């Protein structure tokens, strides 16, 4: 039995009238588990019109009341945490523990939105000139939209709409068509939290829906997470249409391993950071750079990776699940083959891995290359699979140069026992998010997710204070009152002497 996924337009769940039907498949065996009718242009228009109308009243709702909606929402998310994670695991193939982490990291942003009142406070200076005061207000933009990827169907939507709506905006969410059931459940709970009709819209679809959001003048801001090519398209098209855009794109994250690091900690962390979630995360460590004698640990990392076993979402012994689709698997396998042909040594090859009884699933076993160079495809491209590339450097300076020459700047880490080496690395590295003895340094929501270079297009980043600035406009008022006559009248006698 397949599930019919629904849109949420103008406060009503609807199957839609679109003739194009998108099938949602279980990555473990590629059986169809759900279907969704891609939104028509008219349905996208209806969602935009509803959000635009709802903004007129929602922006006037006191900030404390908006925060209370978020308080109820984060409570419902926690109450239904395992249910959401189960839906997510079944449609993404993630293990249950990984799925729970996806949901929880989104809940943390919803919690942060509960504190929106203090985040929206403006600034005041009295007497900037004689009898003149200046102060600022933070006001919402209007209708905002989010376009989200398949790899984190709970966390990334929750990066976006709770803060945007708490700031007083209305929001249209267009999630990945590959796993739309999780976002639908998030929206159902938001309605249950008491959000007024029209404040949040959910539309499923393809490029037709995306292009409408990018071109319609009612949309004031676009948030996007996805691949490099699409991110560039979203940013250019959105800004050409005079919208604010934050577009989080690809990555190629390096971990620099110093010879004075704790070897066992390095081994343990490199395994999880490289193949966890089947490598399908923009903060995955896909390149390990071994400095000096640290290269002697490579065989032990290979040995640890060889023990890792993918499996079904409810298999408690599985380290990760399948990749999302047959096309994704084929791309990973193609890059593995290119790596071999281009001269890298494939010391661990997961190309032929299968799970008994689920041979038709999108499985890729842990894979590891050594003798990788910067000219190779497996180094230049984001593989988005459970593949670790190993490189060597003679010094920390050489490793820093290698990382800084990458066109991407999403995340990086260094493992070392030296405070001096760590300080030098964090200061000189041209990457937005740096971990010191932490493999995947995703910041908590009171900071912001700060990718650099080709990993991000825009100015203000996701969640934290930067997201509040992205979803709001600042109004500055300068006022002057002239004399005591301005306060005269019934019950307004004031002695100004």
From TrEMBL:
Xref: CDD domains: ALDH_F6_MMSDH (cd07085)
Q: What is its EC number?
A: 1.2.1.27
Mention one GO biological process in which this protein takes part, according to its record: thymine catabolic process
Q: Which Gene3D superfamilies match?
A: Aldehyde Dehydrogenase, Chain A, domain 1, Aldehyde Dehydrogenase, Chain A, domain 2
Q: One GO molecular-function annotation for this sequence? A: methylmalonate-semialdehyde dehydrogenase (acylating, NAD) activity
Q: Which residues cross the membrane?
A: none
Q: Which Pfam families match?
A: Aldedh
Return the similarity comment.
Belongs to the aldehyde dehydrogenase family.
The record's PANTHER family line, in alphabetical order, gives:
MALONATE-SEMIALDEHYDE DEHYDROGENASE, METHYLMALONATE-SEMIALDEHYDE DEHYDROGENASE [ACYLATING], MITOCHONDRIAL
Protein name, per record: methylmalonate-semialdehyde dehydrogenase (CoA acylating)
Q: Which organism is it from?
A: Shewanella maritima
